[in-house]
Amino acid sequence: MNKSLVSTALLLAGFATAHAAWADATLDKIRQRGKLSVGIDGPSPPFGILDTATGKTGGYQTELAADLARRLGVQLETVPVTASTRVQFLQAGKVDLLVANIQWTQERSEILSFAPTPYDLVGGAAMVSKQSGIKRWEDLRGKVACVSQGSNFARPLAEQYGAIVKGLRGIPESLLALKGGTCAASVHIQPALYQTLNGPNRTEWTAFTLATEDQLIPSPTVVWTRRGEQDTVAFVDKAIRDWHRTGFLLGQARKSGVPDGAYIQPAHDRARQGKFDVAPQDFAVFTEGRKS
Q1: Fold of the CATH domain 8-119+222-291
Q2: What is the pTM (predicted TM-score) of this model?
Q3: What CA–CA distance (Å, rounded) separates 167 from 144?
């Protein structure tokens, strides 16, 4: 009986070791196939711009992903993802990484791994009609707030502010619902809504505004990997620290029109002094300091 238990234990240990080796071989696999597959948001200025000539999405997130591919010496493949598909795409192996606007949450960190150095700090904003009378998050109580399916803004909107949350496929569908009066507010990451109101198509949104400058649950934006892929995490984290220190990230943000004053510029200044934020521990202190 004891021999049987020992054999079973050794067999299980072998399986665990093999699984760990498989999970930690991602970078080798990427190099072997000569391609890095990265999940990015679809066309959603300022983070992604549709190239009408090729039909592909370029811009900010693509440039960040391209730098990771260059560091590995492989080609880049970008895969558009949505709030409802991105985690499944990563877990199923359809992409190697997620370089999208996916903020750190405790729930996500329990099923995925992530590079601990964030590349942005982003919260939610509420786009509303100028005639709505909504000027604070508290004004959404009892009103319909449209979000993307899987958005981490849904819980605080419902639990903290009493909004009736409606999940839609993405930002375009949410904005269409706002314009049609189906929802009183369209709640998404602040830079995307800012771009909608100030970008090339701003004339169709002149009747709308951001309800408040206060962002909803500002959280660190990180690059996500599958659970336990520590080699990939270490590689990506080193790259992100280089982005901050060298000014690469700041330059790409300004080139694409991504707001940089709230976090990217200060993070660059700190990185030049050898100081880096680590999600989520440093962010509680950072965000509380900004509120005071």
Answers
A1: D-Maltodextrin-Binding Protein; domain 2 (3.40.190)
A2: 0.73
A3: 10
